[in-house]
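From the pipeline queue, job 12 of 40. The input is one protein chain; the requested action is below.

Action: predict structure.
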Amino acid sequence: MLEKKKIGVIGAGIMGKGIALVFAEQGYNVLLSDLNNSKTQKAFQEMSATLEKDLQKGRISSKDKERALKNIVISKSISDFSNCDLVIEAIVEKQKDKQSLLKKLDQICDARTILATNTSTILISQLAKSLKRKDKFIGIHFINPARIMKLVEITPGPKTSLETARISEEIIKEIKKDPIISQDSPGFVLNRILFPIINQAAYCLQTKVAGKEEIDKALKLGANFPMGPLELADLIGIDTCLLILQELDKKLPNNGYKPCPIFKKMVKAKELGRKTKKGFYQY
């Protein structure tokens, strides 16, 4: 078990702020940063607003809210992450950007620090190529929304040590999430199964097989999905969906991952889902 329990999260978007809040609520000291400093401050305000909503609904106490927020420290410098026990990168789903950040962390972090990526599609072996501490590198993929979803995919790379995998799984269980171990394969488990469904839902809409409400209702009532695939795409982010589909199609061609053209059209129009208040639905 980690002694200091200091967790670093780099990336203050939907996933990063969600991951940071999960750890903070479970008593971990969390260091949160983003390549865009103004985004980090906004994320902190949004986390505070999330906790306030739960407080008003009686889900948490005022002490719970205060304690969680006190556990989060905003950082403007990557050097602040040098003494973290675990650092999770949760930046944009682009291999070059992730590799660049991880290489910097590899150089500045203490030898004991575990480096993790929240990637949902990029191979761990690819991201580990430029790292010296390949034994201390692992995939820890939280599911959006991280605070609510119980599943976390843990994906060791070819050089990840058994100790790194053991500690990672132990931490995930300690924050009351349910981990599964996945092989280092494109899309891992969840997205490899999920994204052909989201993609086909978009094709059904584009070819006018049915309207968006009917498509979502079909999966909710016919397959017991808690949320329809188009609603889910809006939650994930249309731009993120496009990146994931492109990456999966590159690694697994002719397997139903070729992005429906509607995704590119929506990204071009900045209709990215909930984060822009408009996607397949309006918010």
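Job complete. The chain has two domains: 6-181, 191-276.
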